[in-house]
Structures are given as structure tokens and as C-alpha cells.
Amino acid sequence: MRRVRRAPATERAYRADWVSFDAWCAERAVGSMPATPDAVARYLDDVGRLQSVATVRRRLAAVRAAHLDAGWASPTEAGAVRAAIARAEWHQRGRATPTTPLAIDDLRQMSDRLPDTLTGRRDRALLLLGYGAGLRPGEIAQLDAEAVRLVPGGLRVEMARGRVLVPFGSAPELCAVTAWTRWSAAAHLGDGPAFRAVDRHGHLGAGLGPKAVTRVVRRAADAAGLDPARYRGLSLRRGMVAAATEHGVSDARIMAHTGHRSRRLVRRYMHGG
């Protein structure tokens, strides 16, 4: 059987998910290849107790892909497996999902996994600029390209709440200056929205809304092998606050950068509350 070609990020995520399933099977002395529908259903039940439905579905896709690549019939279409997915969806109905602050190592991994395409450049610039400037999803959506300027110290970002400086990053994959420069040059940005939709032909569309910012964050998290359901657009801002606090930056300096007016909110942002 001819092996299906997949994007490199998808291959990496599937490999990591297969390792999880294979280890689960080994611990229970059941076969992973080919796996029985009952084993897959039990595995999904275990995953669903701790992970989101999106992660459960991705793990299932990895098991299916591994079987098809190896020339085996996939056990994932069986009724027992579909029932396991339904159980995961049922148990997670109404479950509050906190907004997890994005850790710097996870941000690095997400940035590193993005492709060098126009969309990939846009997403990397959005992630790093949103993180570095501590922007809310609405601020990212409303940001105008002309409000982002290269200055000797990095990027100067003008917003309704004031001006912030995003310095050069400590590594290429964490440098908002480099990411913004590459995206704005490739997209030939002038005035108008800083972050815009890109169609499959590379044509720019309308500006992204706040919900689209969350989709960018979650797509990058998924490509990096992280649980996308844990993150939202606000994870960028909260991650920056948490990282600054961990590095000993005072509440006053953080508040000046983010526009917070309460130390209590700054502390809440550290924990995603």
C-alpha cells in the first residue's frame, strides 16, 4: 500500500500520538499493531479523562494513520470506538476550559513548527508580536500595519491604550522583530490591518477578527503537538505576564506594558484565571 503523504508538522504530531498509544498498549499487554477496536476504545476513554475532545480525536487519527500506513485495516471505524468519542464529548460538555498562559518553551516550539509560507509568516508574526506586546485578541485584530514601526530597540507598537516597545528576541524563532519584518515584506503591507486572511493562492483578504486569533494560536499549538483546547488568543498576553513575573519584572512595569490598572488582574493572568 502506498503511504499517504502528510505535512511534516502532522507527521510529527502523529508520531508522538502513536508513541502514546503504543506505550499504553505495552503497559496493558495488548497489541498495538493491529489493534482491536476494544483496545482503541479503552485508550480513548483514558485519554478523554485528562485531555480535550480535540486531543482525543487527534490521537484517534494517529492510530488510524499508523494502521493504514502499515497496510492494516483501521480499527477506528468500529462502533465501540465511535461510542468512546461520544463518551468523551458527553463528559466534557459544559466543562470550563481555562485560558492557559503560553509558556515560552511552548511558544518557541509553536513558532519553530510553522511553515515558511505567507500564512506561516503571518501566524509567526502574530504569535510573537501578540506575546511580546502583551496584546489582547481584540487589540491584535484592530492593530493597523502602520502602527508597527521598526526602531533601534525593536518594534514600537502604537495602540489606543498607549505605546509599547517589543525588543529583539533572544533567539530567531522568538524574535518578533524578525517575524514582523518578514511577514510585512512578504505581504507588502501598507496601511490597513496588520494581520489579514490569506487564501490558498496567497492573496490577502480582510483583517482577522478576535476569534481568528484564537484559531491561529490553536492551529500552531496543534502543529507543535500541544493540546490546542488549552489555548486561546488571550494565552499570548497571559503568557507574557507570567514570563515577566518569573523573571522578576515588577508589577508596575508589567502594568505599564500591558495597560492593566490592577495588580490583582496581573496576578490572575499568571494562572489563567
Description:
Helix 5 packs across helix 9. The chain has 273 residues and is mostly helical. It has helices spanning 8-27, 37-50, 53-69, 79-91, 104-113, 118-133, 137-142, 176-187, 210-223, 234-246, 251-258, 263-271; strands at 148-151, 154-159, 162-167, 196-198, 204-207. It has two domains: 8-91, Tyrosine recombinase, N-terminal domain (DNA polymerase, domain 1, Orthogonal Bundle); 104-271, hpI Integrase, Chain A, CATH 1.10.443. 56% of the residues lie in helices and 8% in strands.
List the helices and strands and how they pair.
Blueprint: H1 8-27, H2 37-50, H3 53-69, H4 79-91, H5 104-113, H6 118-133, H7 137-142, E1 148-151, E2 154-159, E3 162-167, H8 176-187, E4 196-198, E5 204-207, H9 210-223, H10 234-246, H11 251-258, H12 263-271
Antiparallel strand pairs: 1-2, 2-3, 4-5
Helix pairs in contact: 1-3, 2-3, 2-4, 5-9, 6-8, 6-10, 10-12
Q: Helix segment count?
A: 12
* Secondary-structure arrangement, i.e. CATH architecture of the largest domain: Orthogonal Bundle
Strand order of the largest sheet: 1-2-3
Span between termini: 49 Å
Q: Examine the coordinates and then state which fold CATH places here, giving the name of the CATH topology of the largest domain.
A: hpI Integrase, Chain A
* Count of individual domains: 2
What is the structural class? mainly alpha
Quick one: how many beta strands?
Answer: 5
Percent helix range:
55-70%
